[in-house]
């Protein structure tokens, strides 16, 4: 595995926040994406995530996750996704585990 080194100043540009998943919706015609409504404290965001094969709607509802909050928006199946949820992923992508705070913490808290 080759690792690319980045300057610390680049790391400081990333805004990681604790978010709480409020709503989970299927996206018509797509078998791996969910449309999520996530509370980031100061606002609610729509984020599309390819985690449908690994999590049920019930498992995701009210789950706290770590979100890249300052990622440029991206259209996915006609939906503007405004962030990314962090996950640990096995090399063959058979395992996907969302990154969550160890204990409950205020929604919108910075992760660093």
Describe this structure in words.
The chain has 112 residues and is mostly beta strands. Helix content is 7%, strand content 39%. The chain has helices spanning 8-11, 57-60; strands at 16-26, 34-39, 44-49, 64-68, 74-76, 79-81, 84-85, 87-89, 96-98, 110-111. The strands form three sheets. Strands 1, 2, 3, 4, 7 and 10 form a six-stranded antiparallel sheet that branches. Strands 5-6 form a two-stranded antiparallel sheet. A two-stranded antiparallel sheet has the order 8-9. 20% of the residues are buried. The model has no long low-confidence stretch (mean pLDDT 95).
**Helix segment count?**
2
**Radius of gyration, rounded?**
14 Å
String of helices and strands: HEEEHEEEEEEE
Class inferred from helices and paired strands: mainly beta
- Envelope shape: globular
| Tally of strands | 10
- Mean pLDDT, as a whole number? 95
Main β-sheet description: 6 strands, antiparallel
Q: Distance between the terminal alpha carbons, to the nearest Å?
A: 24 Å
Strand content: 35-45%
Q: List unreliable stretches of 5+ residues.
A: none
Approximate helicity band: under 10%
